[in-house]
Design brief:
The chain has 265 residues and is mainly beta. It has one domain: Porin (Beta Barrel). Helix content is 10%, strand content 65%. It has two helices and twelve strands. The chain has helices at residues 2-13, 15-28, and strands spanning 46-58, 64-76, 80-93, 96-110, 116-127, 132-149, 152-167, 178-195, 198-209, 212-227, 232-243, 253-264. A twelve-stranded antiparallel barrel has the order 1-2-3-4-5-6-7-8-9-10-11-12. The radius of gyration is 19 Å and the shape is globular.
Amino acid sequence: MRRAKRKLCGCLSGYGFTTLSVLCAAVAVDAQVNIEDLRANSSRPGFRGRLELDLSARTGNTETQELGISGKLDHMGLSTRTFVAGRVELGWEGGERFSNEALAHLRRVHRVTGRWNPEGFIQVNYDKSRLLDFRWLVGGGLRLGLYRAGATAIHLGVAYMFEQERLGATVTAYHDRRTSVHRSSNYLSINSELKEGVELTWTVYTQPRLRRLDDFRMLSETRFSVDVASRLSLASMARLHYDSKPPDGTKKLDTLITSGVSISF
């Protein structure tokens, strides 16, 4: 029994785990997701994960209900790290759905040196509030450790990605209903443990379209978490998302502030 268990774990730690993660992503189905917030802080080999839930409701002059669920599964090997992450956000106002989006992201990181790390990724998502029926993308690049001292670390990432998207826009819309574009994906991340059990992460992404730099997306996300038990923490997040060329009828800027609970395992 133990030999079979070790054999299974060895299979999952390699590309078998990557295949399994793709299948999970297909079930889960903004081209931007804050990957730095999803990376496990621990460097110990093995599996670990996280599940977060935030729920809000408002009554009176405005009646709204919003539900957000996100999770990730991470595996750390001797020279690679593989993780799959998913997120679902739903919202209702007066019984009518005003928010409906989901995302799944798979990433594999290889350790070459202490500072340089090649990584590849695949992602699928949709966002009905932004008229996005479906998007998939694939890419790869390098992650560089710029600075590390004590409980503070700064990282820089540069990558190429190819994306295809299908919009739910009308036939007469200015924006193309189907597009295939090449982009550069770049990020700067600062992670700091302010004191034991209190962590702050800030990340900013820019994703310009190659050969058309006026077509770009930007994501800024700040996350603050406080441990309240060995595997339970309270987390607050502020997100700013900007799209210079949004679909017809949608705004360029979106902001979001959430608070919820996080369970680690």
